[in-house]
Amino acid sequence: MKRSYVFVLLVLFFTCGCNIVPKSVQYQKEEEKVIGSVDTINPLVEEIQVALDNLGYETDATDGRMGQKTREAIKEFQESMGIKSTGYVNQKTWRQIEDIRRASEEKETKEFAGKIKVRSAYSEIPGAVASSDTGKPTEKEIQKALKGAGFDPGAVDGKMGPRTQQAIKEFQRTKGLKIDGKVGPKTWVELKKYLK
To answer: Which of 58, 60, 139, 191 has the fewest CB neighbours in a 10 Å radius?
Structure first.
């Protein structure tokens, strides 16, 4: 009789959808949905580290690795912003970091706008896509424009490597474009504004 009660209780426990997953695992899963895996070097983690360092939070390094110091800095940032302090990057945390980063970039752009002499590398024909002979932007033009926009495509070597593709995706995300890592006409219209 006693065994049957235990069995019934166990069956109820496992079939009622009881949540026995630790909170930290839930936070990790949510973080992975927002910024991807942090098990290896992640450019979005590096972006977070740079943003937090610029705001005065100590992350120890800006190497794209999610270490203890970075977790602590995220936690401090969350506390200061009134976000649940978990040390993991959820959607709210990511939005706050992005908003602050964008505001900082806009401020810097306005400060230097009067100091920079801009000349166009494109023809004056409306709708012109690029200055290259093929009508498409070259890889070097894309990389130079990404650097001008504040994204890190790696070396400007004319090669479309993983860092360049990640920088394109980050640019597309910040501009509200389709995130595919390819520079099509819509992406190029936004990106060519930063070609120097």
So the answer is: 58
Residue 70 — pLDDT band, cuts 50, 70, 90?
very high
- Judged against a pLDDT cut of 50, whether residue 44 lies above it is answered with yes
Distance CA 167, CA 150 (A): 9
Backbone torsions φ then ψ of 116, nearest 5 degrees: -100, 130
Degrees to nearest 5, angle at CA 108 with 95 and 166 = 50
> Which residue type sits at 89?
V
* pTM (predicted TM-score): 0.48
Instruction: Specify the fold of 23-113.
Output: Muramoyl-pentapeptide Carboxypeptidase; domain 1 (1.10.101)
Query: pLDDT tens digit string along 152-183?
Result: 998 888 888 888 989 999 999 888 888 888 88
Residue 162 φ/ψ, nearest 5 degrees:
-65, -35
DSSP letters along 59-117, please? -S--SS---HHHHHHHHHHHHHHTS---SS--HHHHHHHHHHHHHHHHHHHHHHHTT--
